[in-house]
Each structure stands twice: as structure tokens, then as C-alpha cells.
Write a structure and sequence with these properties.
With 459 residues, the chain is of the alpha/beta class. It contains 21 helices and eleven strands. 51% of the residues lie in helices and 12% in strands.
């Protein structure tokens, strides 16, 4: 961990030249193999804010210099809407803990399988309980790509950037300002893909579908317009909408069509709309744990998914429907997503489960005791210990983030290898292997430089 800006500069001397408008890479291999680990660790854990921000900036600018850049998936999804990349489903991976190591595993699989269509994402709720700010998350992903010698686009996505119904009803202006600030922080960090979730505002007490979706449409249009105002020059941010809250009733053809038609009418003429649409088909985030700790079988309605994806593509030119909560489905069903022309699936819980399975028992026991002591009031009546821990253990990532990063190298290597195997299978099942060249033809590099931090500039 770098203790000062001067110590950081000394470490970079002769390897990276710092300029006010970026960096010059003097020894790329040395930087990749010897300095990135220390830079990303300081970017995450350093108590000195000047050093932390300097490390984040150096990682971002070094990424640009080495060919790693954040990108919008908009043009790829526009191409999918034209039928140019059918029957491929893009995996969107949420990483909750041990982010640097897991991102390295994913990048290694990406390189080996020549995958161009993949997304790193984090939900607004995950930002809170994993204690990963947007700027931190971006820095760690960029560092992982540099460390593994990757060159090319990185799609970073804000998942479920959601309006809380309770908070909105108490203070509408405050809730919307809070969401806009999250979006601004995320875009500034490098998230050029944002999923707006105003499905919480759907009013099923209204008789007509258009009336039920009215609040969802109006609020989504307002947030989408704000995103267009702040997107960087040269970037069209890919924006997703949502009609069915995950865990609720399955979405219908009428809901999808009323929502998109209403959104198009609400938006200012000429403004880019959404590129995809999230729907509900029978899944629940994290799955449903049974009393013995196993998971209930998910009954996903692939017919609904296929039908709504078809309408989204053929009638509206979108990339298709998006499936949330797919992590706990059997892996041998994943081929059905490209079969149904699903645009994207969001995956998180299964990687979390694998990580917890491979943690040393001592650390795992410490986390579980912490959860029992600090979240006992959230335990539902009749819930077994196994059910409670399964539902709560995602909240162990933030408080134990540094202990996970400080695990012995052999433990972290084992976790990386296990997850790399998982990513290999997922990429193959979703038919995104060997898509790198095709995606690179569509996604053109846009290099967005960031202002040098004051602490680094002063030196």
C-alpha cells in the first residue's frame, strides 16, 4: 500500500510518465506484472484519499494507454435489433466480493474463448452492501484487464438503478435526486450502460395496462433524458427499461407494448430510447432457499421470454428481453436463452455461492457469526439457520472485503480457477465464444480521459 503521493511517484518512476492529460507507458510489461496489484489495492483500501484517487486515475489512464477502455454496448444492441447477431445471449456478471480475482478469472476466460460480448455490472443495492463505489468497481475491473494483458472494450453496467417506492412516496424530489446522483457518479466513473428500474412504480390496482405502467413510463423517460444530458461526447449510453419487478407476476405482451409505445411518446423527438427491456418470467433474485439450505427448483417461463423477445426485436428494433435472477438455474438449461433470442441475462448468486464454498472455514464462520449478531432482526419467522445465512451472506462482503482480498494466494488462485471454469461453460452455453472480432467491428474505441486529481497534479 502506497503511503504517500511521493512514494507512488517513486514506484512509477521510469515505468509510467504522468502528464496532466494522461500517462505515457514506458515499461508496459513491468507495469502489468509488478505494479498493478499494488495500485489496485491502494485504490480500494488506502485511507489517504489523495493516494486512493491518484491510483484510480493512474489505472484508468494506463488502461487507455494499454488499449483497455470502457464502452457502451449500444451499437451492438442496435445491430442485434436489426437481426445481425441472432441467438446469442450476453452474460452480465455482478461481482460482489473478491472482485479483482474474480474479474481476472473472467478476463482470462474471455481471452481464451475469444469472447467480445460480456458485461461487468453492479446493482445499486450491491454498491451499498458490498461497499464498492462505482469508481472503485471500475478501477478494479480495469486493473484486472491490465493484469491479464487484455486489450479491448469493457462494458460496465449499472444494474437495477431503482426508484424505491417507499422513499418516492415520502419525498419524490429527494429520491429522484439521489438516483440522478448515483447515475452521475457512475457515468463519471466509466459506466456507459445503465439499467433504469422504475418497475417498482407500476400500479396493478389500475384497470388498464397503460394506466398501470404510466408511472413507470413517465419516471423512466425523465431519468433517461437526464442520462442523455450527461453522457460523454462520442458515447451513446445503452439504457435498459423494466416492466416487471423481479419476483412478481410474469410479464405480458400487452405490458411490453404499452410500455415501449408510451415511452416513445414521452421522450423528446430524436432522443435515443432504450436498447433492451427487462421482464419477469418466474425467477427470484438469489433463488428460494429451503429449510435444509438447498434451493427450490425455479420454473422459468421460456415461452414468455421467447415471445416478448420476439416482439421487442421485430416490432421495436430492441436487442430483446433481459432475464434477471438466472444464476440459480441449472447450467444445462442455459442454452435455452440464445434459443429464445434473449438479449442478456444477469448472473450473480452462483458466483457468490462458489466463493463462499471455497472460503476457509475460519473466515466463513466469522462472517456467519457477524451476520447473526448484526442482522438478526431481519430473520423471518420460521426461517432455519441455513435459510437465514443463505439470504444474508451477501451482506458479509462489505465488512469482510479486506479479509477476502488478504486471503492466502493459493486460496485465491483456487477460487479464480474454479470460477474460470464456470465462465467457460457459461460463454459456451450462451454462444458468445468467438464473438470478439465481430463485436470489435461494431464497437469503435472512444477514449475518455479524466481530469488529473488535485493531489497528483500538485506533484
Amino acid at each position: 500500500m502506497y503511503q504517500s503521493i511521493q512514494e507512488l511517484k517513486n514506484a512509477l518512476a521510469g515505468r509510467v510518465r504522468i502528464k496532466h492529460d494522461g500517462v505515457d507507458m514506458l515499461e508496459g510489461i513491468t507495469f502489468q506484472e509488478r505494479l498493478v496489484d499494488a495500485l489496485v489495492y491502494s485504490a480500494v483500501f488506502n485511507d489517504d484519499l489523495e493516494v486512493k484517487n491518484a491510483c484510480k486515475w493512474i489505472l484508468w489512464e494506463s488502461g487507455l494507454e494499454l488499449g483497455v477502455y470502457a464502452a457502451s454496448i449500444q451499437e451492438l444492441y442496435t445491430a442485434k435489433g436489426r437481426g445481425e447477431m441472432p441467438h446469442k445471449t450476453i452474460p452480465a456478471i455482478n461481482i460482489r466480493g473478491l472482485t479483482y480475482d474474480i474479474a481476472r478469472a473472467l478476463i482470462r476466460s474471455v481471452k481464451r474463448n475469444r469472447v467480445g460480448a460480456f458485461i461487468f455490472e453492479i446493482a445499486s443495492s450491491e454498491i451499498d452492501y458490498t461497499q464498492q463505489s462505482p469508481s472503485e468497481y471500475v478501477s478494479v475491473i480495469i486493473a484486472a484487464a491490465i493484469r491479464e494483458g487484455y486489450q479491448g472494450h469493457i462494458f460496465l453496467q449499472g444494474d437495477h438503478f431503482q426508484i424505491s417506492r417507499d422513499k418516492y412516496e415520502k419525498d419524490q424530489e429527494k429520491e429522484l435526486l439521489s438516483l440522478k446522483q448515483l447515475i452521475k457518479d457512475s457515468v463519471d466513473a466509466g459506466f456507459y450502460n445503465i439499467d433504469i428500474d422504475a418497475s417498482t412504480m407500476v400500479d396493478m390496482n389500475k384497470p388498464a395496462v397503460q394506466e398501470q405502467q404510466e408511472n413507470n413510463i413517465r419516471l423512466t423517460a425523465g431519468i433517461l433524458s437526464y442520462i442523455r444530458e450527461i453522457e460523454p461526447i462520442g458515447i451513446t449510453i445503452s439504457v435498459g427499461g423494466e416492466i416487471g419487478e423481479i419476483g412478481g407476476k410474469n410479464s405480458t405482451d400487452e405490458e411490453l407494448q404499452e410500455y415501449i409505445n408510451g415511452l416513445q411518446k414521452e421522450l423528446e423527438s430524436g432522443l435515443h430510447g432504450i436498447s433492451k427491456i427487462s421482464i419477469q418470467t418466474g425467477t427470484v433474485h438469489g433463488g428460494i432457499p429451503l429449510s435444509d439450505g438447498t434451493l427450490a427448483q425455479v420454473r422459468l417461463d421460456f415461452d414468455t421470454l421467447s415471445r416478448l423477445s420476439y416482439i421487442a426485436i421485430e416490432k421495436f428494433g430492441l436487442a430483446g428481453a433481459v432475464q434477471h435472477g438466472a444464476s440459480t438455474l441449472p447450467i444445462d438449461t442455459f442454452h435455452k436463452f440464445p434459443d429464445t433470442n434473449t438479449a442478456e441475462i444477469h448472473l450473480a448468486t452462483q458466483f457468490q455461492n462458489i466463493l463462499y464454498e471455497m472460503l476457509p472455514d475460519e473466515l466463513k464462520d466469522e462472517i456467519y457469526e457477524y451476520l447473526k449478531e448484526n442482522f438478526g432482526e431481519e430473520r423471518k419467522e420460521g426461517q432455519s439457520d441455513e435459510q437465514f445465512i443463505y439470504k444474508m451472506r451477501k451482506k458479509g462482503f462489505g465488512p469482510f472485503k479486506q479479509k477476502m482480498w488478504d486471503l492466502h494466494a493459493a486460496v485465491r488462485t483456487g477460487i479464480r480457477n474454479k470460477l474460470e471454469e464456470q465462465f467457460d461453460v457459461i460463454f459456451e452455453k450462451l454462444r458468445v465464444t468467438n464473438t470478439m472480432n465481430a463485436v470489435k467491428k461494431i464497437i469503435k474505441p472512444v477514449y475518455i480521459h479524466k481530469p488529473i486529481p488535485d493531489g497528483l497534479s500538485a506533484h
